[in-house]
Amino acid sequence: MTRSGKEYRERLADGRRVMVNGEVVSDVASHPAFAGAVDSVARHYDRAHAAENRDVMTYPSPATGEPVNRSFLIPRSADDLALRAAALRRSAELSVGLLGRNPDHVASFFAGWAARSDVFARAGAGYAENLVRFYEHLRDEDLYAVYAIVPPQVDRSKPAHQQSDPHLYAGVTGETDGGVRISGAQMLATGAALADYVVVSNIAPQPPGSEDQAINVAIPVGAPGVKIYSRRPYASGATSVFDYPLSTRFDETDALIVLDDVFVPWEHVFVLRDRAVCAAQWTETPAHVLGNHQAQVRLATKLEFAVGLAHRIAEATGNLAAPPVRGALGEMAATVSVVSGLLAAQIQNREIDDEGIAWPAREECFAVMTLQSELYPRVLHMLRDLCGGGLIQLPSSSADFAHPEMAADLERYVGGPDETAVDRVKLLKLAWDLIGSEFGGRHHQYEMFYVGAPFLVKQRMYGVYDFDRCRSLVDQVLGEYGLDTPLPGAAG
Ligand SMILES: Cc1cc2nc3c(=O)[nH]c(=O)nc-3n(C[C@H](O)[C@H](O)[C@H](O)COP(=O)(O)OP(=O)(O)OC[C@H]3O[C@@H](n4cnc5c(N)ncnc54)[C@H](O)[C@@H]3O)c2cc1C
Questions:
Q1: Tens digit of pLDDT for each residue in 380-414?
Q2: CATH number for 336
Q3: What is the pLDDT of residues 25-58, one digit of tens each?
């Protein structure tokens, strides 16, 4: 059954170890670096748990009949995909798309893996059973999993087993009666400090010799030996929520995860030292497209937020009536519409596989993945352009409004004809947090890389696109003339 935000918070007290600013933090819910994000995740749970959202955001668990989050739904039709997308959208709106790895993301991967557990069964029925049981556990207890599926940037010129230590990259070091032991590091576990489980696997195919890294396991974030090395948190450095409304509430954190001889019981092992299954889980199950469809619903929400900001700011500055400004807004809107349109096309052109599972259409899904590393920076650039220097003439902090002399000057010189200075500054500081703050910079990097390095994503697009369709048009035209073809109208 869906859980409440309170229930989510209670489970965080599990002895987790988050390394940040020279400190080992266990109580993330009350630490200034993480408390705002914990609040946002708690609101995420409250949202789906609320009676008024139940119809859109939940469906009855096939096991218990209780309402469970729709991100876990295994889609079997275009209608199912549309219902999932509506739920994901409502969820994404809570953070205007800024919680990239909210609980819906990896839930979508598990739905895709569970839908085609036969892929995991290739290594033995037990792995598929573990996977399905774990999926049901996440679904029916409404738990939050994140993943770390890329090795750390130690030396990318060599595979795992050729590094100075073959267990620098997270991998299996041994097996016991009860399970396996895992050591090494993996990047980048976004949201790990806030989640219940971190899934460790590898999205890149592992070469012969790197079998220890050809795994998929789920590890409780609080398990002994798990260390979460958080990057610099942006919430704790903020002067106020007013000054940094996004950094203070939606910094989901990213982390290098270090596994120090972590024990993983067999029931949490889904792939073990199997290079073929480890690779197939991303391509022969709908996990990757379902997870990325979710990520793109979120991206569309975030892009719309950026367009909304641009429109509001152009209005506030009195520029909205200028045709070039309208043109710029139109271009932003067109860019967002490309993403929304491709999302709709993923549903309309879904592929139903031989097990009756509906996959969001791959071409359209990979098209967004390919373009997003350019579309997001482009939309940010257009927003920046429309804001001009207004973003920089802002008062140093909200404290200036508490000083009568400063407040009077701000009211006179920063407020607009129909707007108080507080409202204008509030709007522009919101934009700055998306464009110019350290949080904003991280989001730029996130949209460029969360789905993999752009040069690789483009190659994957090459792999799924139907070039024959295009080539046949060329063949058609080439077939219509030859060396001896007379010019049209020439006397024959
Ligand atoms: C904010 C953020 C959050 C993330 N969250 C997660 C997460 O939750 N879970 C997770 O598993 N991962 C996450 N990632 C990691 C992400 O998956 C990786 O960043 C991504 O896979 C790219 O790998 P990399 O960063 O090592 O880049 P690299 O593969 O090292 O590539 C970096 C750049 O080097 C150049 N380059 C490298 N190799 C070549 C080559 N052969 N030919 C040409 N150019 C090359 C390209 O310019 C490329 O863009 C996140 C990343 C970011 C930035």
A1: 999 999 999 999 999 999 999 999 999 999 999 99
A2: 1.20.140.10
A3: 999 999 999 999 999 999 999 999 999 999 999 9
Residues 198 and 315 in one domain: no
Nearest-CA residue for ligand 1 atom 53 is 446
Assess whether 245 and 354 both reside in one domain: no
Ligand 1 atom showing the smallest separation from residue 445 Cα: 53
Same domain, 279 and 424: no
pLDDT in tens, 413-466: 999 888 999 999 999 999 999 999 999 999 999 999 999 999 999 999 999 999
Q: What is the CATH number of the domain that holds 28?
A: 2.40.110.10
Instruction: Among 252, 283, 314, give the residue marking a domain's end.
Output: 283
**CA dist list (Å): 463 to 157, 369, 402, 467:** 23, 13, 59, 9
Mean pLDDT of the chain: 97
Per DSSP, 266 falls in state G
DSSP codes, 366-434: HHHHHHHHHHHHHHHHHHHHHHGGGGTSS-SSGGGGGSHHHHHHHHHHTSBTTB-HHHHHHHHHHHHHH
Pocket test residue of 188, 217, 444 for ligand 1, highest count of atoms within 8 A of CB? 188
Q: Flag whether 481 is in a domain.
A: no
Answer yes or no: is pLDDT of 491 > 80.
Answer: no
Ligand 1: centre distance to CA 285 (Å): 23
Taking only the tens place, the pLDDT of each residue in 323-340 is 999 999 999 999 999 999
Q: Using the mean position of ligand 1's atoms as its centre, give its distance from the Cα of residue 460 in Å.
A: 14
How far, in Å, from the CA of 34 to the mean position of ligand 1? 24
373 and 448 belong to one structural domain: yes
Q: How far is CA 408 from the centre of its chain?
A: 43
Task: Output the CA 331–ligand 1 centroid distance in Å.
Answer: 29
Give the residue, by CA position, lying nearest to ligand 1 atom 29.
453
pLDDT score at 416:
87
Question: Among 220, 254, 283, which residue terminates a domain?
Answer: 283
Per-residue pLDDT tens for 358-374? 999 999 999 999 999 99
Q: Which domain holds residue 124?
A: 5-283
Nearest CA to ligand 1 atom 43: 455
**Ligand 1 neighbours (beta carbon < 6 A):** 101, 146-150, 153, 156, 187-190, 254, 442, 445-446, 449-450, 452-455
Number of domains in the chain: 2
- Asked whether residue 391 falls in the same domain as residue 456, the answer is yes
Q: Does residue 237 register a pLDDT over 90?
A: no
Please tell me whether residues 50 and 140 are part of one structural domain. yes
Output the residue whose Cα is nearest ligand 1's atom 21.
452
- Rounded distance from Cα 254 to ligand 1 centre (Å): 13
Nearby residues of 482 by Cβ (< 8 Å), 6 or more positions away: none
* Edge-to-edge strand ranges of the sheet holding 255-265: 23-25, 18-20, 226-230, 255-265, 179-186, 171-175
The protein residue whose alpha carbon is closest to atom 8 in ligand 1 is 190
